[in-house]
Every structure is written in C-alpha cells, then in structure tokens.
Known about the structure:
single chain, 105 residues, alpha+beta, HU Protein, Chain A, 3-stranded antiparallel beta sheet, extended
Amino acid sequence: MIKSELVLRLAGQNPHLFQRDVGKVVDAVLDEIIMALARGDRVELRGFGSLSVKVRERRIGRNPKTGAKVHVPDRKIPYFRPAHEIRKRLNPGEAGSEEPASMPS
C-alpha cells in the first residue's frame, strides 16, 4: 500500500471528511514521526510497533570494483520493531509465538 491508497481508504471510511483533509492529516502524522526520529526520540504506536534510530558506527569499507579502502562515516538508520499484535496477525498458526529469552551465540 502506498500513501495515496491509505488516504483513499481513510477517506472512504470517513465520508464526512474531504480527501484533501485526510491527506493533510496523514502528511502531518508522518512529518511528526520523522521530526521525532530526527530529534533522536523513540516513536511508539501501541498495537502497531515502535520506531527508533540506530547509529551505524564509522568503518572502513571496500570499493567492490577497485578493491580500494573507503572510509564510511557514521550513519543514522531508522529501525522498526513490530508490536506483538502485528506479529500474531502475520503468523496466526504459530503455537509458541513467544520470542526466546536469549539467542545462542
């Protein structure tokens, strides 16, 4: 689903709202999420999941074409962790859908 499809669905579910107004609300929500992540905040949407920013430390990479070493700077990467409810809906038949306490190394 793309954003325009989301706007159409929401407008269809709420016929008292204009499609352009629904679009503005969707844009405002997404902008607030992006601004919160840019500030380094964690965004938690109960029943959906949480978004946070992880930092990939700088490192020395390799150019695959030439083999030359390349300095790769720090990078901020958005990270999404789905809520338990989403995981249950995606995998309805799993009996023990609980995550293990620790993973073996």
